[in-house]
Amino acid sequence: MEAIMTKYSNFDDMGRAFNERRVDTETRQTYEGSFIEASEMAKLSIVGEAEKLEMPDPDQAAAAVEQMLSTMFDVFRDTRMEEFAADLAWGFVNSFHMVAKRIEGREDDAAKKLGDLVRSYDPSEIYAVELEETQLLCQTLEGCAEAMRCMRDHAGEVYRIETGRPFSTVRGSRVSSKLTASMIDGADYLAARAAKKREEHNPTGPVVAFSGGMEWHDHEQLFERLDQIKRRIPSMVLMTTAMNKGADAIAAAWASSRDVKLVRMMLERRHGNKAGFLRNDRIASLRPVEAVVCEGSGVQIDFARKMRTAGVPLHVFRRNEQAPMQPARSRRA
Question: Are residues 189 and 87 in the same domain?
């Protein structure tokens, strides 16, 4: 099949074409809710001056992400290099993730400084200016991180549609949340930020437990079942056994695409061969309301047994029930 590539002379044309063909209401709202300017001024470093800078246009940003990922697949499609397109595209998506993490780190540093300033109040004008500038720095970096996460999640969805496989990071957490545009004082800003961080890293809500084997490719059946569970339990928190490939990675990708809080229950390797089984005990102790298990190793057998013993409704998937693995496919006719 011949690849069809569309050329645009500028981002406005690209954005209009993107809107006509691809952006549904939910995607547009996600971009508009993520590319928010808390202030008309922006400050990106402690030493830099505040500047009057706008956020990128949300529609143009969406178009750029779509075009960048799609073009990579178009160029390689039906050539001897087609199999490498997915690897390159994964690298693009992961780059968004890594840059977002770096921005979050800079925001954390700025927030620490803001906390120090709030705790050491000084009525001088110099103090007031420094406090205001540090708060602006925090808000600017928070907005940039939110926009970067939005683009990462969109790029991950393009990757999933093109390859038939969900995108998942190798390590680390993925947190997406919506910003508010309100201007608040330094102490209130820190309190709100701390509350948001607590919810991100210690989310509240009914726990749905998930464990699966490392060799798993059929994401559609898992997406469908998790969607069914989410319809019954809209405020669910998904807790996985934190494998970086296979069924757990698919579940993590589902959580990201559905804006569901994800908790990755890591192994405590100091326990050696017992680590996986002790992790199952920890998950069971949290009283999940439902559980999903995909056939894997003895750890998954133990997981299923402990969920049943605890009276947790259990959804079981077996390897031989997967749909055949499909090659990378095109979204275009």
Answer: yes
Q: What is the pLDDT of residues 201-260, one digit of tens each?
A: 566 789 999 999 888 988 899 999 999 999 999 999 999 998 878 899 899 889 888 888
The verdict on 40 and 143 lying in the same domain is yes
**Same domain (yes/no): 167, 214:** no
Q: CATH number of the domain that 312 lies in?
A: 3.40.50.450
Number of domains composing the chain: 2
Q: Which of 193-225 are b and which e, b meaning 16 or more Cβ less than 10 Å from the residue's Cβ? A: beeeeeeeeebeeebbbbbbbeebbbbeebbee
> Hey, what amino acid is at 102?
R
Classify the phi-psi angles of 314: left when phi > 0, otherwise alpha if psi is within -120 to 50, otherwise beta: beta
Provide the CA 65 distance to its chain's centre, in angstroms: 15
Instruction: For residue 109, give every residue at least 6 positions away whose Cβ sits within 8 Å of its Cβ, in sequence order, or none.
Output: none
Residue 216 and residue 191 in one domain: no
Indicate whether 108 and 131 sit together in one domain: yes
Residues 188 and 270 placed together within one structural domain of the fold: no
CA pair distance 141, 106, nearest whole angstrom:
7
**Quick check: is 2 in a domain?**
no
Q: Based on the domain organization, do 227 and 150 belong to the same domain?
A: no
What's the pLDDT band for 108 if we cut at 50, 70, 90?
A: confident
pLDDT digits (tens, 9 = 90+) for 297-320: 999 999 999 999 999 999 999 998
Domain holding 227, by residue range, is 207-321
pTM of the model: 0.58
Residue 116 lies in a domain: yes
- Token representation of residue 165: 């496989």
Burial annotation 11-34 (CB, 10 A radius, 16+ → b, else e): beebbeebeeeebeeebeebbebb
